[in-house]
Specification:
2 domains, globular
């Protein structure tokens, strides 16, 4: 790649959305949404319940396909690309409703996240050779590192279903990170967390950004959003109401009227 081409690539947003629309019957969940997410940024999406935030994450991750519009990730069109291919491309997510393998241990849940990057021959799964053993060891070591990152190194062998709600949130985050994403979509991560857990979550999201992971965050906890986001997009009735820095969002009259109910302190 030439120096000029490299400079253009560095300026290009990691994710670009243009004119996204998504209807469910007569309900317009997302309407003409466009935005750019730069690399190494925390991009928050806020808005009232039913504003279309989770639908937007589903469009980005491939759970839904848009009725019209386009999504581009690292210059590659995501049009018609299924969710599992987007994971391999570098997009991972957590869900508002926690989805864990409840009967497996904590570390086994995280190890399951590595399957998208396994590069061992299929027959090794039947006849466990040296390559299989090396792969399993590498996955367990990396899983333990991720669980240490989310503060769960003492819970490796506990059954996932027996964890507290806050611990399950952290486990789901660790499992998403096991796919080694460049873009991480986080849906309502602070829901059900106490103040100390929210503070820890905020620190970890910042650490991810500082380590080179771009984050799109959907969250109702405004203190967390205003303290961690680089840019914020506000949605209302499926539309893009406003986009700007946290300070600009707090002062925007349309945002205050539609969502915040008053200027944040």
């Amino acid at each position: 790649m030439s120096a000029a081409a490299a400079a253009v690539a560095m300026r290009q947003p990691l994710l670009q959305a243009q004119g996204l629309h998504k209807n469910f019957g007569g309900v317009r969940a997302v309407s003409d949404i466009s935005f750019d997410v730069p690399a190494n940024a925390i991009f928050a999406v806020i808005g009232p319940n039913g504003a279309g935030k989770s639908t937007l994450l589903n469009l980005i991750s491939g759970v839904y396909q848009p009725d019209s519009g386009s999504l581009t990730f690292k210059g590659t069109s995501l049009s018609a690309m299924p969710a599992h291919r987007r994971v391999r491309l570098g997009i991972a997510r957590t869900f508002q409703k926690i989805r864990l393998f409840r009967q497996l241990s904590v570390i086994e849940n995280v190890i399951a996240g590595f399957h998208v990057h396994h590069k061992i021959p299929a027959w090794q799964y039947l006849v466990h050779g040296a390559v299989f053993a090396d792969d399993q060891r590498r996955c367990r070591e990396r899983a333990a590192e991720l669980l240490d990152f989310v503060g769960m190194s003492a819970r490796l062998h506990v059954t996932a279903g027996s964890l507290s709600y806050g611990e399950q949130r952290m486990l789901e985050l660790a499992r998403a990170l096991a796919t080694n994403p460049q873009l991480l979509l986080i849906d309502e991560p602070a829901a059900g967390l106490n103040a100390a857990e929210v503070d820890g979550l905020l620190d970890r999201i910042r650490s991810l950004r500082n380590g080179g992971t771009t984050v799109i965050l959907v969250e109702h906890n405004m203190d967390l959003v205003m303290n961690v986001a680089d840019r914020i997009m506000v949605m209302d009735y499926g539309r893009r109401l406003f986009e700007g820095t946290p300070a600009e969002v707090q002062k925007n009259p349309a945002v205050i009227a539609a969502y915040l109910g008053g200027e944040l302190s």
